[in-house]
Write a structure and sequence with these properties.
Elements lengths: L2 H12 L18 E5 L2 E4 L4 E4 L2 H4 L8 H14 L11 H10 L7 E7 L2 H18 L7 E5 L8 H6 L16 E4 L17 H16 L4 E6 L15 H11 L3 E5 L23 E4 L11 E6 H9 L16 H16 L2 H18 L6 E7 L2 E6 L10 H13 L2 E2 L1 E3 L2 E4 L7 H17 L1
Parallel strand pairs: 3-13, 5-6, 5-7, 7-8, 8-9
Antiparallel strand pairs: 1-2, 2-3, 4-10, 9-10, 11-12, 12-15, 14-15
Helix pairs in contact: 3-10, 4-10, 7-8, 11-13
Length: 445
């Protein structure tokens, strides 16, 4: 059978599969990935594409790691899976929990494992509600999130997500979820008072929402350190310090969603390190295994752990998933985190991220390129009709991404923002290829 016939057969077989964000117009001619190595995807039609999105922001150690495949194989031979409910554990989950304890912040020493980011955020919301009930404040149930936020695709996680395109076809959000303005320095939609910084103004939006809802009803505020799918929103310096102060003042728990930003993505192991931020709960997934096997989790503060441990048995934290603490997944996660450390990938993320942003800034020679921003290897640029009006040009962004894919570069359009999140193993030559291919596309347009 020829490659063309094999491709046609695979596409026909694939018609039985529903894909994420499914619509047939988006999937009429899928790129069938046959294998991958480093930052490169290889199609069954012999196409070679530089994956500047690392899958879905998550293949941190790059594709084709024989080391992680070997770890999974060896663990599966011994024990692929067993229940992780109270009364049982396994070696890799215990070792990975110990490895992660205190890594993001000294007060985050308890880990609960999930299978992905949506499950992690869902677990965080339930834990918050549990905490306040145990504290004698069951009326604290409201979750505050932000416009342009993305927290996952389950019912509660979608409700916390601040992108209405994920709501309208499902009749969401659920009651109990409210949203405030994003701290978007380029497109801030809130008010800035005289003498007030944008960081102060964006944080004030949180305080005003807490007061309007009633502090006695607000359970938590959830935020990504950098808003990912909502358009690479990088908050101004000092924003999260103000957020922490406000949460403490009104007795509101702070959930930090590091599903995208964790494990070296922003040039530190966790993005909270940029401002020494202390979360009450930190959610993670994606980079913990670099996508080699599904895994996520939450880190909870010592204060929350104490409440869980001191509850009477009839009020136990009765939450759990079948695959929590999955032995093979945790074994891969442990080795993956060690590889990030051993290979200096956090530092490489910082260095290559600086190089990528410098290259993207050079594309401002094209008058529709503006607002290059990011940290580490999590970056974006906007395409606008003109820089003076800053009017977004989402159609152009979509066209650029389609042409880039045809030219051998996978990037992602988020409205009028083009997102870049390549594997942390990327080298200088590959970073320069991203800029060169994108520049060639813009030049042709």
């Amino acid at each position: 059978m020829t490659a063309t016939l094999e491709h046609a057969t695979l596409v026909e077989q694939d018609k039985h599969q529903l894909h994420g964000l499914h619509h047939p117009e988006r999937h009429s001619n899928p790129f069938v990935v046959e294998h991958a190595e480093g930052v490169w995807l290889y199609g069954d039609d012999d196409r070679k594409v530089l994956d500047a999105m690392a899958g879905l922001w998550n293949v941190n150690v790059g594709y084709g790691s024989e080391e992680l495949a070997r770890v999974a194989y060896e663990q599966m031979k011994k024990l692929a899976y067993t229940s992780g409910f109270a009364g049982m554990t396994n070696v890799p989950s215990a070792q990975l929990a110990d490895k992660l304890a205190g890594m993001a912040h000294p007060t985050l020493n308890s880990i609960y494992f999930t299978s992905g980011g949506s499950e992690s955020n869902e677990t965080a919301f339930k834990t918050v509600l549990y905490y306040w009930r145990q504290m004698g404040k069951p009326e604290k149930r409201t979750i505050i999130s932000r416009q342009q936020a993305y927290h996952g695709i389950t019912m509660a996680a979608t409700s916390a997500t601040g992108l209405d395109k994920y709501w309208k076809m499902f009749g969401l959000p659920l009651s109990g979820f409210v949203h405030i303005d994003a701290p978007n320095a380029y497109r801030f939609t809130g008010s800035v008072h005289d003498g007030e910084s944008l960081a102060d103004a964006a944080a004030r939006a949180l305080e005003e929402k807490i007061l309007s809802e009633g502090p006695e009803t607000v359970a938590a505020f959830i935020a990504e350190p950098i808003q990912g799918a909502g358009g690479l929103v990088v908050p101004p310096a000092g924003y999260f310090a103000r957020v922490r102060e406000i949460c403490d003042r009104y007795d509101v728990l702070l959930i930090i969603d590091e599903v995208i930003t964790g494990f070296g993505r922003t040039g530190t192991m966790f993005a909270v390190e940029h401002e020494n931020l202390r979360p009450d709960i930190l959610c993670f997934a994606k980079g913990v295994t670099s996508g080699y096997i599904p895994l996520g989790g939450i880190m909870v503060s010592d204060a929350i752990r104490a409440v869980i441990d001191n509850a009477p048995e009839e009020m136990a934290w009765n939450h759990g998933f079948t695959y929590s603490g999955h032995a093979a997944a945790c074994a891969v996660g442990l080795r993956n985190v060690e590889m990030i450390e051993e290979q200096g990938l956090v530092e490489n993320s910082r260095i290559m991220g600086d190089r990528l942003r410098t290259g993207l800034e050079s594309l401002r020679e094209f008058r529709q390129v503006d607002n290059v921003r990011g940290r580490g290897l999590l970056n974006g640029l906007e395409l606008v009709k003109d820089r003076e009006s800053r009017e977004p040009d989402a159609d152009l962004a979509g066209q650029v991404c389609t042409m880039a894919m045809a030219a051998g570069l996978r990037v992602r359009p988020l409205g009028n923002t083009i997102a870049f999140s390549p594997p942390l193993t990327i080298n200088a030559d590959e970073v320069d290829q991203i800029v060169d291919i994108l520049g060639g596309v813009l030049d042709r347009i």
